[in-house]
Design brief:
This protein has helices spanning about 45-50, 60-65; strands spanning about 10, 30, 40-45, 70-75, 75, 85, 90-95, 100-105, 110-115, 120-130, 140, 145-150, 165-170, 175-180, 185-190, 200-205, 215-220, 225-230, 235. By secondary structure, the chain is mainly β. The protein has 3 domains: about 10-115, Structural Genomics Hypothetical 15.5 Kd Protein In mrcA-pckA Intergenic Region, Chain A (Roll), CATH 3.10.290.10; about 120-180, OB fold (Dihydrolipoamide Acetyltransferase, E2P) (Beta Barrel), CATH 2.40.50; about 185-235, Roll (SH3 type barrels). A 5-stranded antiparallel beta sheet has the order 5-4-7-8-9, with no helix packed on it. The chain has a 5-stranded antiparallel beta sheet with strand order 12-11-10-13-14, with no helix packed on it. The protein has a 5-stranded antiparallel beta sheet with strand order 18-17-16-15-19, with no helix packed on it. The N and C termini lie far apart (about 50 Å).
Amino acid sequence: MTKAGKKQHQKRISAPTTWPINRKGSVWVPKILPGAHSKTYGMPLIILLRDVLGVAKNRKEAKNILNSKKVLVDGKPRMKEKLPVGHMDIVTFADTDLRYRVQLHTSNKLIVKEISEKEATFKVLKVIGKRNLKGGKTQISLHDGRNILLENGDKAADGIKVQNSIKISIPDQKIKEVYALEEGSRVMVTDGRHQGKLGVISEIKKRFGPKASEVIIKDEHAGEEFRTALDYIFVIDKLELEY
């Protein structure tokens, strides 16, 4: 007889390359739960605590820390060890000065950047969908799986378009700013050969048909221009990220 259902285990050697773990060691690593991020762009919370931040030496210590309800992801206590944390998530530890932002890096790994108390109060997200609902309400879908519902007549809905980014306060999800995707916008590349690079859009070339739209970006570190697909662009405005 064959086994039914999906596999419940994840081998270390076949874990996504974005996970910043040692490929040699124990055979198994925790398998990420379905949630806000796919396993390519997110990692289990226990890996962040144990393998990245080093606040726990083993799984038992990590679970004790999580059970204390002092680990907050986007301002909310999280206790599930396999919960996915990924690009742009804010991870803080209650009663301490430990505050981090998870981000994609030019090394094609997920890394953490230590941030200030002020930066830990907001999050920047990419808009991946927008639709009108019954009663004139507007639903904004974001890259981390969340949806924000705007009431009929809310002026914020008019300025939000797909592929823009929005800045929200956490955990109450109030929209603070909208970052438009346009020439002159400061952006980050989240996929492809230029993943993790930061720069300013010089030109947007929109195409229809099988050939994807693309943008030309001036690398803010190297000073050279490069091309990438429009879908890979994440507008970050003045947000400070690791390069």
